Amino acid sequence: MENRITSPGGTPAFAVEGEFTIFSAAALKPEIVAAVRNAAGQAVEIDLAQVSEIDSAGLQLMALAKREAAAAGRDLSFVRPSAAVLDVLALCDLASFFDVPASSDNGDPRPAQRDPS
Amino acid sequence: MAKTILIVDDSASLRQVVSIALKGAGYDVIEACDGKDALTKLDGRKIHLIISDVNMPNMDGIAFLKAARQLAAYKFTPVVMLTTEASADKKAEGQAAGARAWVVKPFQPAQMLAAVSKLIQP
Amino acid sequence: MNLDEALKTFVIESRELLEGMEDALLRIEQSPGDADLINAVFRAAHTIKGSAGLFGLDPVVEFTHNAENVLARARAGELPINAEFVALFLEVCDHMRTLVDRVANGGDFDVEVSDRSHELVVRLQAFSPAGIPAEQKPMLPSSSPDVVAETADEASTETGDWHISLRFGRSVLKNGMDPLAFLRYLTTFGTIVRIVTLFDDLPETDAFDAEECYLGFEISYRTDADKAAIEGAFEFVRDDAQIRILPPHSKISEYVDFIQSMSPDEIKLGEILIRCGTLTQNELDTALRTQAEEEAAGEAHHPIGEVLVAQRTVSPAVVDAALQKQKALKENRGGDSSMIRVNADKLDEHINLIGELIIASAGIDLSAIKSGIPELLEAASVMKRLVENVRDSALQLRMVQIGATFNKFQRVVRDVSKEIGKEIRLEISGAETELDKTVIEKISDPLTHLVRNSMDHGIESADVRLARGKPAYGTLRLNAYHDSGSIVIEVSDDGGGLNRERILAKAIERGLVKPDELPSDDDVYNLIFEPGFSTAEQINNLSGRGVGMDVVRRNIKDLRGSIDIETTAGQGSTMRIRLPLTLAIIDGFLVGVGNSSFIVPLEMVVECVELTQEEVDASHGRQHLNLRGEVLPFIRLKELFDLPDVPPPAENEDDDDDFGLGNADGTRDEGTSTANARYEVDEELAFLLQPVKRENVVVVTYAGKRAGLVVDELLGEHQTVIRPLGAVFNGMEGISGFTILGTGRVALILDVPGLVRRVASDDVRKNRAPSTHRG
């Protein structure tokens, strides 16, 4: 569960990798908040391609990020959600809330990974 | 990759039956015979759920749960405690230690599977 | 691994647990305050019940459940742990053993068994009259309100779906529970028609604790399952979440209550319900209107929780009251986590293979010596040492402590003393003494007989004891210790001791002793081991039962052991059993007599001396030797086994070659430290003596007595794999087995105990030599 800031394709992005769960939530929260607040441009992307597992704690952080972006007047998008993420969004009927396409096939060359470990 | 469950009980036959049931449902299973043994299995590997008896020699389930919660990798791991109706006191201790899921002994394998699948899915 | 194997495991572990249970019960009477003991008893029942349930062994579960309930109360200090308690639970323990036996035999629980179960359950319940202890009711919730079936006179909602409203508590995630997992579980027996995820409770960013849960869900759910099943999904968060489950077609007033209970912002919740499809707009309007009317009428809101919500928490007060701090985390039989269970057959096979390995290794050793290649000699010597180590560790695997066997006698002593009306206490020492598992298994029956014999015949009745100035209660002692390669097991009592006169009289009456004979004390006492000998004035149902002391002695002899008696009139007797530590492999000392080879168990060899012609002359045919001033009786093996006096020269040379070389392995400077000192001497002697062909005396000792064995050659140490004698040779005097040498030849193993007894008893009779250990 390694999470680090990466900048693929020029858009300021934060990538969540591995577990997006209670085990990583406390560490991820300040990073995500910072990524949203400190983004250089208008658009902020959070890359979820490498999320192996997501639980309620991860879901809450997505909601927090979305609210934070709204407060900062930025356009946040969650990109390349992994299968685990899509599964949870479908379960909670939140795909449209987070403006995430219902399928992981969003032109991403990298396939979503369920479990990189 | 299948999710991993650690089963801790001093009864080898109970472990075996539960293990058969869980493996049949698609989980990987690790066994330990008491709390002390179980702690040695908590070596950093990902364990998605712990099933632990309360009353065991060497280190009982409550002490084991407390110790496991001190380890970052198992701080929030779901735990199913096995208990009897008669051990209300132990249940209180377990709740204080953060255990919420209880399965009353004796149970059928199907009951255990149901309890597990409320907490994690294979 | 399959279920059958698991069931076998169940039987094995249950028997072990019951053994532990019995052990704890027997000790608990002496120390009723010992929390470890009652906890051990409780846990045995608890574990067996738990495992039996998994196998669907209802008769076991049901019976054990009753026992466990009483034990739980006893453990909580609510019931006295007294003699009655122990007696009852010993019976319970026995019956559980019966139940487990039935399981082992295919699960045939007949009327006899169930009647016995019933009888004991009645007594258990009578013992614990106040009923079950503060008990958690099984998890199934009480039946839900009657709203479903009833056709309401009041307006019902249209929807055929359930409505589930969830507000998770802050701590659920920390407690290892993921709300999403519960939702997934719901999808296993129904369909989430609509779901609204609520993030409304998310706090301000700074206050947001990522490890706390702020989620809520409103769910419209379609299922054929009943309310209990839906509630069951949230069983583990019942205490940590607000859960509302509204059945299909619930009354609007119930939604009113629901809305009121849930949120300060009713209208918003109402809208959510509409979004969920649970309520139509019309229904919501009705609900809000009803609420307004109620408020206007000043009616209090209905208490909702218990009607709609399944919240069966244990009241903290009850819990506190029941709370009994249990310290004992550790159990006296600790360390079992590092144990593995191995099938005894596998172990035996392993030992047998090592036996073969030893023989093969001896062959290689011999060939290496013959070849004279230094590298090969070196390699063979290293291998031989390793094989010895392997042998020792393999034999060690089979060593078990005798304590478990001793502890079984707690029960025997307890039962028998009640039966015969004597108060007898059992003291155990040396429980940690180890011996071969095979030996332990075979010694249990003889030991039982000795214990019963001592209780019955040894220990006097209380009146007699008091008259003799002894405590009214008798004491029986079981003791074990290691002594020069043997294990000694003693059964002692503080009773009246053996009565020499009565035994002698009886023996004369039975024709075992001629009236004019004057046998030694030892001989008299040993008479009780003669077939059909019994001096008990009254034969009760214990001693009169089949097995006699003669069988005891025979069983012990079969184990290459011996039994002796030490007794003091009025003060008690000690039956002392000596057994070899292991039955499989021994360190032997190889000797040559004429053409034949014999093995003397090395642990019984004291030293080897030369038998000079002067000494032979001095003995005047009396078969005695003056060993540094002490009289040493000896036996000429050549005479004993009727061997040809002078071996054929060619054969002899051959032998010399073989065994002389075999002897040369003694030049190794390590590995045989136990015998090194003696060995050096032997070797010198052997070299000195071989060309001259003078006789040698191997001085052996057994049970404190010494004897000399006269042989031609001393051929050195030999690892001896004991093979039992076939039926033809069984009972052959002086021989206890045979082994195969590296050369493929056979060597007979000398029965040193038998030989020593033979000459030493002569010795005692003729010389009155002091014998410190009469055992």
The geometry of chain A reads as: globular
- Determine the CATH topology of the largest domain in chain C: SH3 type barrels
Largest sheet of chain A: 4 strands, mixed
Mean residue pLDDT of chain A: 79
CATH superfamily of chain A: STAS domain
Just give the CATH class of the largest domain in chain C: Mainly Beta
Shape label of chain C:
elongated
The span between the termini of chain A is 9 Å
Structure summary, number of beta strands of chain C: 21
**Helical residues, percent of chain A:** 25-40%
Could you describe the 3D structure shown?
The complex is a heterotrimer of chains A (about 120), B (about 120) and C (about 775). Chain A is about 35% helix and about 25% strand. Chain A has helices at about 20-35, 55-70, 85-90; strands at about 5, 15-20, 45-55, 75-80. Chain A has a four-stranded mixed β-sheet with strand order 1-2-3-4, sandwiched between helices. Residues about 1-10 and about 105-115 of chain A have low confidence and may be disordered. By secondary structure, chain B is α/β, with parallel strands linked by helices. Chain B has one domain (about 5-120): 3-Layer(aba) Sandwich (Rossmann fold). In chain B, helix 1 (about 10-25) packs across helix 5 (about 110-120) and helix 2 runs parallel beside helix 3. The radius of gyration of chain B is 13 Å and the shape is globular. The mean pLDDT of chain B is about 90. With about 775 residues, chain C is α+β, with helices and mostly antiparallel strands. Chain C contains 25 helices and 21 strands. Chain C has a five-stranded mixed β-sheet. In chain C, helix 3 (about 60-75) packs parallel to helix 5 and helix 15 runs parallel beside helix 16 (about 435-460). Chains in contact: A-B, A-C, B-C. The interface of A and B includes residues 23, 114, 115 and 117 of A.
Task: Record the SSE blueprint.
The complex is a heterotrimer of chains A (117), B (122) and C (775).
Chain A: E1 4-6, E2 13-20, H1 22-37, E3 43-54, H2 56-72, E4 75-79, H3 83-91
Parallel strand pairs in A: 2-3, 3-4
Antiparallel strand pairs in A: 1-2
Chain B: E1 4-8, H1 12-24, E2 28-32, H2 35-41, E3 49-53, H3 61-69, E4 79-83, H4 88-96, E5 101-104, H5 109-119
Parallel strand pairs in B: 1-2, 1-3, 3-4, 4-5
Helix pairs in contact in B: 1-5, 2-3
Chain C: H1 3-28, H2 35-54, H3 58-75, H4 83-104, H5 111-127, E1 162-168, H6 179-186, E2 191-198, E3 216-222, H7 227-233, E4 241-246, H8 252-262, H9 266-276, H10 281-296, H11 305-308, H12 316-322, H13 344-371, H14 374-397, E5 399-401, H15 403-420, E6 424-429, E7 434-436, H16 437-458, H17 462-467, E8 474-483, E9 486-493, H18 500-510, H19 521-526, H20 549-558, E10 562-568, E11 572-580, E12 585-593, E13 596-601, E14 605-611, H21 613-619, E15 624-627, E16 630-636, H22 637-640, H23 649-664, H24 673-692, E17 695-702, E18 705-711, E19 713-721, E20 735-740, E21 746-750, H25 752-767
Parallel strand pairs in C: 6-8, 13-21, 16-18
Antiparallel strand pairs in C: 1-3, 1-4, 2-3, 5-7, 8-9, 9-11, 10-11, 12-13, 12-19, 14-17, 15-16, 17-18, 20-21
Helix pairs in contact in C: 1-2, 1-4, 1-15, 2-3, 3-4, 3-5, 4-5, 8-10, 13-14, 15-16, 16-20
